[in-house]
Amino acid sequence: MTEVGWELAAWAAGAVALLALLAVPVACWATLHGPALASRLAVAAAAARRDDAAARLGDQDDLVQTLVVATYALQLGDHDRARDAVDGALRRSRDTLDRLLAEAGRPALTGTGTPAPPRGGGRGGGVPAPRPGG
């Protein structure tokens, strides 16, 4: 082996020894502080889940309020406002479902083409027929 080879081998052995010496304090620190860090991470993860759940509940409440507006508009005979509210609720619902599907690693619903026909062969959209005299 040449002199350069010996120097390179000595340098590599020194680097390995230095890493081994540095690993000991790091391992000691991790042993002492690891459980506290794991606890903090668990608390932070739980808080993030609560915040996410609160945001989803807020989205659901917005959807319900939009449908309430549609219901009142229908009761007052304001069909344009009711239609706009239902369209907005459907758009919000689809956006929420797309986001949830994306989080689950599944394809989104948007861009799937035209909506499926209503079930039961009745009027479209599940809107009741207007009552006579009302």
How would you describe this structure in keywords?
mainly alpha, elongated, disordered C terminus, 2 helices
Number of helices: 2
The amount of helix comes to over 70%
What fraction of the residues are assigned to beta strands by DSSP? Answer: under 5%
Main beta sheet strand tally, sense and closure: none
Poorly predicted parts: 117-134
Counting DSSP E segments of at least 2 residues, the number of strands comes to 0
Name the overall outline: elongated
What is the string of helix and strand elements?
HH
Query: Quick check: average pLDDT?
Result: 79
The Cα radius of gyration reads 31 Å
State the end-to-end CA separation.
103 Å
Give the structural class: mainly alpha
What number of domains? 1
Provide a descriptive summary of the structure in words.
The chain is an all-alpha fold. The protein has one domain (3-105). The protein has helices spanning 3-75, 79-103. Helix 1 (3-75) packs antiparallel against helix 2 (79-103). The longest helix is centred in the first third of the chain and has 73 residues, at 3-75. The chain is elongated, with a radius of gyration of 31 Å. The termini are far apart.
Q: Helices, strands, pairings?
A:
Elements: H1 3-75, H2 79-103
Helix pairs in contact: 1-2
The gist of it:
This protein is an all-alpha fold. It has helices at residues 3-75, 79-103.
